[in-house]
Amino acid sequence: MDQPNNQPNTQANDRGQRLSERIILVTGALEGIGRAVAMACASEGATLILSSFEEADLEPVYDAIVANGWPQPAILPLNLETAGERDFIGAADIVADTFGRLDGLAHCAASAPFLSRIDDYDPGEWERVIRINLTAPFMLTQACMPILRLSEDASIVFTSDRVGRTGLAYWGAYAAAKFGTEGLMQVLADETRDSSRIRVNSIDPGVLRTALRANLYPGEDPNSHPAPESVTEAYIQLLSTETRDLTGRACSVDPATGKLL
Fold first, then answer.
1. For residue 36, what are the CA distances in angstroms to 31, 41, 179?
2. Residue 128 and residue 135: Cα distance in Å, rounded?
3. Between the chain's N and C termini, which has fewer beta carbons within 10 Å?
């Protein structure tokens, strides 16, 4: 992992930024919701750990954060499709050695390669989609629990989807994984509610203008949906101390304000 200069962000403190001095790991930071959340968190004073499949993919995001004068981020390449238990534990150990704690974990990585009837769904593809969208977030969260417990106020945010709350035809493994994400969030929130300073929530950001959506609906006008930047306020609310007492909540986003519902 490329290591940032870990000096306290006093300039951010002076500006009263809501994520000042918080260490936040964002998966899927290459594009879409993940990139938008990473940029928004950096603008609010957070030190970001940017994660995606390849280190080179994240360099433009890294450069954009640095160019804006925000806290220097770190890069943590992690292939959610192929990583095993040792890889996730190793990643958490690197974060621990570099920062000493983790204040926020935002699961923004997602994969929905196609729409298909259950009758026709390829079993191998089913397992791959479940792994990226559910198993890998579980394994990364599990690996990070010890360093999240070192924070005075830690927040885990799982990105859900409307099809993970009400199933829709043809969404297959992606919908099943998002239903699993909601269950994982609820179980972990109940386990940590009275035994730690970790809060766990999920958020359905709504239908947005992302590459994932464009891949599934190539004939759709992408401008008919809001940009990912329109929902970042809700993520910041969940990752900041202003929602310190909120846990176990399946959140949505107010389309008019971008804030939590």
1. 7, 9, 24
2. 10
3. C
Contact in structure between 154 and 197 (CB atoms under 8 Å): yes
Residue type, 240: S
pLDDT tens digit sequence for 62-92: 999 999 999 999 999 999 999 999 999 999 9
**Which one of 121, 170, 174, 235 is the catalytic residue?**
174
Q: What is the CATH number of domain 10-252?
A: 3.40.50.720
Query: Do 70 and 24 meet the contact criterion of CB atoms below 8 Å apart?
Result: no
Total-model pTM: 0.93
Q: Quick check: 95 and 76 in contact, CB under 8 A?
A: yes
Domain boundaries, the chain: 10-252
- Check: CB of residue 58 under 8 Å from CB of residue 52: yes
Sign of CA dihedral 143, 147, 152, 153: negative
Half-sphere exposure in the Cβ direction for 245 (13 Å, CA): 0
Q: Return the closest-CA partner of residue 210 out of 77, 108, 63, 95.
A: 108
Question: 121-170 pLDDT, tens per residue?
Answer: 999 999 999 999 999 999 999 999 999 999 999 999 999 999 999 999 99
Helix axes 136-148, 172-192, angle to 10 degrees: 20
Nearest 10 degrees: Cα torsion 159, 205, 162, 243: 70
